[in-house]
Amino acid sequence: xxxxxxxxxxxxxxxxxxxxxxxxxxxxxxxxxxxxxxxxxxxxxxxxxxxxxxxxxxxxxxxxxxxxxxxxxxxxxxxxxxxxxxxxxxxxxxxxxxxxxxxxxxxxxxxxxxxxxxxxxxxxxxxxxxxxxxxxxxxxxxxxxxxxxxxxxxxxxxxxxxxxxx
Length: 166
Description:
This protein is mainly beta and about 170 residues long. It has one helix spanning about 35; strands at about 5-10, 15-20, 35-40, 45-50, 55, 65-75, 75-80, 95-100, 110-115, 125-130, 135-145, 155-160. It contains 1 helix and 12 strands. The longest helix is centred in the N-terminal third of the chain and has 4 residues, at about 35. GO terms for molecular function: hydrolase activity, hydrolyzing O-glycosyl compounds.
């Protein structure tokens, strides 16, 4: 995964998302939404908070919202604070991911968290994906049962991508 990656964040739910980008130490710069990101879809469902550094995304019957980074990143720390919609959400997939698919359509790389919809009374599941060169044979998919209810509060999900490891 040596190609540059454009960070896509598609979060289809009611939540707050705080995205931090770049850096390799505890002193990470926090980009304002306008200087780091652009609306991708569902503009009416994305509201920038007064601090300019976090957004509220809503899900309705037809659409959610998504945004994309304005710059390409080779490495960095990427993080989102996400609260999933409660109750019956089967069929809803919430994704926080990085991909260079807009540049390498047939041969892209991808790192992601996918929150799979839930059925009342069942455990919540999360799937992580790492693809290299557009193939699951160069990477892996893993599913995990969550030991907490991600709809009760905001939780931090992060990807630390260095030159040597993810």
